[in-house]
Design brief:
Layout (H helix, E strand, L loop, with lengths): L1 E4 L2 E4 L5 H7 L7 E5 L2 E3 L14 E6 L5
Parallel strand pairs: 1-5
Antiparallel strand pairs: 1-2, 3-4, 3-5
């Protein structure tokens, strides 16, 4: 299916948000996910289905000094 991640068109077979994150090898700890302009809490990732034309923003916060 076609989705958009951080503004870029991509194709995925991942049925859920959790599967997509795992397939990309992302560290879930500092990750914030916005799906169609709504923040999705990590506890909801496994139950959140992805659909054609969904728009995701994946943001990782990094601390520093």
């Amino acid at each position: 299916m076609k989705i958009f991640i951080n503004g870029n068109e991509e194709h995925t077979e991942s049925p859920t948000l959790a599967d997509l994150i795992a397939s990309r090898g992302l560290d879930a700890g500092p990750l914030v996910v916005e799906l169609n302009q709504q923040i999705i809490k990590q506890e909801q990732w496994q139950a959140t289905s992805l659909n054609e034309e969904d728009r995701l923003e994946l943001l990782s916060f990094v601390g520093g000094g």
